[in-house]
Amino acid sequence: MFTQSYKNILVGIDGSDQAIEAFKKALAVAKRNDGTVYVANVIDHQFYTFMSYSPLNENIMDQLTEDAKELIADCKQIGKESGYEKIEGVIAYGSAKEAMAKTLPEKYNVDLVMVGQSGLNAAERFMTGSVASYVIKEATCDVLVVHPSAE
């Protein structure tokens, strides 16, 4: 019998409930495999430039970076409360789709990417397409899409 062991799990977070659900499931996979969860927030310059924040000024970037740090800290706290702390925070800049499908998996030797079915921002999905859809098509490792809880 073949069993897959995932050691480096990447999960994207954007503050949405689905992203937190994906993180919690990534945490469970990591626990079973004694793996590391790379929790990533990608700040997409193109989206914010398109939405009239042109040019993307330093104050906005500083605020987005602080927001990302808070999201990562929240995830690390969830991990700590569940008794698992092999969690690394990653803040990346650029295309969320490229970062989640290619750049970050290569950098961290990721063998599983976990993404929420849809993220926080409907306008971004309209303008750039779904990050999850892109990751499914373009990632060179396994991808697990987390659907919303039936609550």
TrEMBL record:
Gene3D superfamilies: HUPs
UniProt cross-references to Pfam families, sorted A to Z: Usp
GO CC annotation, single: cytoplasm
Record-linked InterPro entries: Rossmann-like_a/b/a_fold, Universal_stress_UspA, UspA
Protein name, UniProt field: Universal stress protein
Main location: cytoplasm
UniProt organism field: Enterococcus hermanniensis
Domain UspA, chain residue ranges per copy: 6-147
SUPFAM superfamilies found in the cross-reference section: Adenine nucleotide alpha hydrolases-like
Highest taxon of the lineage: Bacteria
Family stated for the protein in its record: Belongs to the universal stress protein A family.
Subcellular locations according to the entry: Cytoplasm
